[in-house]
Amino acid sequence: MMGAIQNGLRVLRGDIVPLLVLQFLVTMITGVCGSLAYLIDDGGPYLTAALTALIASPFELGTAFVYLRTVRSGSVNFEHLLAVPGRYGSIVFASVLIMAIGSGATAMMIVPGMLFYCTTRFVPFLLLEDELGGAQAIIESIKLSRSCFWQLLGICSLGLVGLFLVALLARYIGIASAIGIVPIFVWWHLSIASLYHAIVRPPSGWALEDLEEHDRIASNEGKEDDVEVTP
Fold first, then answer.
1. Range of the domain at 57
2. Whole-structure pTM value
3. pLDDT tens digit string along 142-184?
4. How many domains does the chain have?
5. Closest C-alpha among 166, 99, 111, 194 to residue 138
């Protein structure tokens, strides 16, 4: 867990301005969706869920994908957001499933809802990188999380504690919410992206090499394996 957290902080320090700007915009979009639901339907749950699934979630999942590519390449590239339109249907479907199952689990008890939340943190990567379907991405994320569940739980718990502290400070210093929440979200997502990268690209550990170089080497190795050596 500490490796993922430390790497998340390292990446955040390296590209702090564009990462904060990106997260701030996504946070604003999410906030606008909530405000619209409140103005139109007095905060009705169905309209809130619809706006979240149709508008906010695609931006949030696309941003998570940008974080993953930033962890791998060491630089921020907003062009990765262009992967969202082609996967929009699967993203919306996965978001609806996560909200429905998560709400049901939380309604029964808080702990099942928290556990389900943790085990679906890899869904954005599986949707946009592996191009899995919505339901399949959720299932695969749960499977992958089994090998690193306690690390995921630790990262999510630390993130929630950080958000709670910022919210507590906001009671006394209003601007603290705007200043503190955005960096915490960025670090949170970068840490999860670092953990995912370490899982799906063994045995090179964090392997923070350029993504294109990694793929080029893997492609060349595959070609070499196909060559038949004759005496």
1. 2-204
2. 0.77
3. 999 988 888 888 888 888 887 777 767 766 665 555 566 788 8
4. 1
5. 99
